Structure formats: C-alpha cells, structure tokens
Amino acid sequence: MELWMWTIAVAVAIGGGMWGYAFGRTSDNDGTQAREKSRSLERELTALQREFGGYREEVNSHFRSTAELVHEL
To answer: Structurally, how many domains does the chain consist of?
Structure first.
C-alpha cells in the first residue's frame, strides 16, 4: 500500500475510535436509565407474581370446595 492509503486508514481508525469513545461517554446516562427501568420492571414482576399466587390459591380453594360438594351428591 502507498503512504497516502496508510494515512487515510490510520486517520479513519483514529476518528472511529474518538467517535466511539465520545458516543460511549454520552450514552452512559442511558445505562443508568436502563438500570432504573430494569429495577422498576423487577418490582412490577414481583408484585404480579404475588397477585398471581393469590389468584391461584383462590382457584385451588374453589376447586376443592366444588369437589367436596360434587362428592356429597
């Protein structure tokens, strides 16, 4: 390769590295927001799992009482 090709290749590599570094630094806040969103979703999931557990227990209780009533027939 000729010298001018090497110069362009090195300049592009340096420019890309600088752009990547700058982009990575500015998007760090997005990482914080993503962690907050993740925690929020985990809390919501936990609440829904508790709610589902209660619902499941209600259904089981209903089926038990229905089975007892059918057995008495």
So the answer is: 1
Range of the domain at 64: 3-72
CA 22 to CA 11: how far, in whole Å? 16
Indicate the pTM of the whole model: 0.49
| pLDDT 10s digits, 39-72 | 999 999 999 999 999 999 999 999 999 999 998 8
Tell the residue number behind the tokens 């089926």, with chain if given: 63
Q: Per-residue b/e over 11-30, b at no fewer than 16 CB within 10 Å?
A: eeeeeeeeeeeeeeeeeeee
Rounded Cα distance between 49 and 41, Å, is 12
Between CA 73 and CA 69 the distance in angstroms is 7
